[in-house]
Amino acid sequence: MPGIYTEKEIYGDALAAQKACTSQFNLAANECTHEDVRQTMMKILNQEHDIQKSVFDNMHASGFYPTPAAEEKKVQEAKQKFSQCAK
C-alpha cells in the first residue's frame, strides 16, 4: 500500500524513536554500578545521539524541521546563563 505515510511522518517517527531511545540509554548509564557496563551504555548512548542528529539533519535538509536563526543577543544570554551552571 504505497503512500500510507508521508516522508515527513516517517522522519518524525524516527526522530521520536531516537529521542526515546537516547532517554532510556541515558537512564541506564546513570543507574549502572558496574563500570564496564556503564561504559558500554555510554558508547551506545553516543552512537544513538549520532543517529538522532543524522535524522534531524535529514529532516532539516528536507524542510521538515525548519529552525529560525537565533538572535545574537539571545545566543549571548544563553551562553552566559549556562556557563554559570557549569562552574
Key descriptive features of the protein:
single chain, 87 residues, 3 helices, 76% helix
- The number of helical runs is 3
Shape: flat
The helix/strand order is HHH
The percent range for strand residues is under 5%
Number of strands: 0
Helix/strand-derived category reads: mainly alpha
Task: Tell me the major beta sheet.
Answer: none
Percent range of helical residues: over 70%
Task: Evaluate the radius of gyration.
Answer: 17 Å
Average pLDDT metric = 92
User: Which stretches are low in confidence, meaning pLDDT under 50 for 5 or more residues running?
Assistant: none
Number of domains: 1
Task: Please provide a written account of the structure.
- The chain is 76% helix and 0% strand.
- It has 87 residues and is mostly helical.
- It has one domain (7-85).
- The termini are far apart.
Q: Which helices and strands appear, and what pairs or packs with what?
A:
Layout: H1 7-31, H2 35-61, H3 72-85
Helix pairs in contact: 1-2
Brief overview, please?
By secondary structure, the chain is mainly α.
